[in-house]
Each structure stands twice: as structure tokens, then as C-alpha cells.
Amino acid sequence: SLAEIPAIPMALNENNTLPVTYGVYNADNMTLSNTRSLTYHVRMTSDNPCLSPIIDSERVSAILIQNVIDNPTEETTNNATFDKVLLSQSPKVLYTGGVQSVTAKTAGSNLLEVSLKFADPDKITPENGGIVATAEVDILDGIVTGVRVTNPGVGYSKAPQVTVTATAIPTLEKTDPTFDVNMLFNQLSTTDKTTIESFGKVDIGQSVFLQNTKDSSETLYHITDKYSAGKELTVLFTDKKLSDNGSTTSSESNLAIYANVNWTDEINPTTGTVYCKYITKPIQMSDTCNMCKVMMSEFLPKISYIDVYIKSWLSNNSKGYENLPWKKLTSEGEIGFVDPQGGDFQDVSYEYSGDAFDTVAVKIVFRGENSNAVPMVKDLRVIACL
User: Fold this and answer.
1) Which of 240, 257, 219 is nearest to 91 (CA)?
2) Which of 28, 104, 259, 348 has the most C-beta neighbours closer than 10 Å?
């Protein structure tokens, strides 16, 4: 009820208006109350008993402004039951990845030297673009103390087998360690027409599930890019570990691919689920650069967020500006929340470095859960360097 809403003191400004940041609000979360109404309680005083202030009630008006802002997430946007779409059953695809990590399952003892050799289960050779993974093993006092992947390899579709060659200290009994191999799976390639048509339903920034139909285990991947070359479609994913022997991708007949189609991350070249965003026009440089710094002043009330993305490309890029995915940047230093009533803007910078470019564009995404206390930016500058 209105009686439960606290009164907000206001004072006339130089334009004879009474500005107030929150207007009528709920005391707990500072959003418009369910009554959607506004009541003025005016107290009039005078030092002269012969004079009294007067209010012309017919000329009293109120302008209520509510900002349109949201903070959607993949979990709140996609319904696990209704938004999960089957793309392909038993698809004819090639999954490629590399070794993420190797760990000694048992430490092993009395060892003088250990060497690891990764099998190439898919006949990985330089001729077909594959690279066999390599690793180094640390031994201290005959004990395996650590394993480091020196080359993750390219072209694996499941975790490779490891051949262990161990040399025992001559006077002691030999005990071989065993090793677990974790995989990075980040690419799918196919020339299968049905699978290509299926992946036409999902876009960069959306997610897919690879499901092992034998045990219903699922692994979630986010699509970071996809492109066609001739009759082949290649889809790139965010890096994911396969902590088992790659059962999710080891057999085409036991694999199904599902997609979540309602959520689209802001890395998508042309769209995104978040409502409020600002995108600069392409900025042409006078020369090629490989580093760019984005600077601005940010006003960040509690439970609000600002995300900054960048596109960079050479002007002769055949892929085209509109088809390039956005890259999310990380701010240099911590950004603190401010009081929406009296807080100040904070200077923030973001840095990007990568392949040579001569054109750049910036996208700023505004997210929040309170339409009366929204994030803002000013003084945007973009500086590119050689």
C-alpha cells in the first residue's frame, strides 16, 4: 500500500521542477511499486500570516521514466525441457582436439626415468593436419612428481592412449605409474549434408550439447565461430575438457547433438540476447595495428554490469565485417559499485592485442536488474597502437 512507501524529500531546482531519482519505489529493491501510482504530500509554510503559498493543482504534472534494461543469462533464458532442439542423431562428423593435461593416477615409485608416448588413434599425421601430443615427466627420488604437456597436439577425436617407458633404479623393484589424459575438444568438421543443414539452425554465441546416447551423459559447448569452405562446414567451440576417455565423441553411432536456440551470447556478429547496447561505427586506422585500448568513464550502481566487446579486421578481409564474431574484453583493475544517488563515474580501460588490423569497432553492453539505477558511460576513447 501507499502507506508503506516512504516519502522522499524533494527541493525545487533552477527550473522550478522537483527532480527525484527513484520516484515512487519499493523500499527493498527500489523498483516501481505494484500500485503504479504517485502521491504528492506537500507541506506549505510562511513567515507572513497575511501571505500563503498557493499550488495550482491543474498545472501539477509528473513525468515518470523507467529505463529498459535486463540481465538475461543462458540458464534463465533456456528451458532445459522445451528449448533443447535435436540437431543430429548419429552425425557423420570429425571431432578434433588436443591433450589438455596429463596426471599421474598413482605416483609410482623407485623410478629413475619415465617417458610418455601418445598413440595417434585417428592416424594423426602432418599430411592430414594432425600433430601428435608430447609431454614431460618430473622424477624426484624415484617418484613421479609432475607431468607437463609440452605440445597439446591437433586432430584428436578421443583421448589418446599413453605408452609408458620406465627405467627402475637397479637395486630396487620397479613400479610403473599410470596416467589419466584430459582432452580439449574445440572443433567439429563435416561434409555431411544433413549435419550441415542441422547446424544452420544454430549460430555463433549459442550452445550445443553432445550427448552419449549409451549413458545419456552430456557435455555443453558454446559456439565461438563457424565457417564454410567448399562443401565442408567447420564449427569452433569454447575449450572443454573430456575427463574420461572421450566417450562422448568416440563413436558416431552413440552420439546425438542438441542445441539451445533461445540464448545468444553477445559474441554473435549481429545480435545478442541482452536488450541494451551501444555499438560504434567501424573506425578506420591510417595504418595497420596489433594493439588497441578502449577507455571510458563508467557509472556502475549495485547489481548492474558493463561488458565491452571489440571487432578488429583488415579492410581487405574476405569474411566481411558483419560475419566476424565479437571478442569480449576484460577491464584492467577492479570496478566497484557506486551509490546511484551520489556516486561518481570511474575511469576504466580495456586492452586488446591480436593479429594485425586496420579497422576496429567497439560494442558496449549494459546489464542490470534495477531499471531505476542503471549503468552509464561517458568519454569513450579508442586508441590503437602498432
Assistant:
1) 257
2) 259
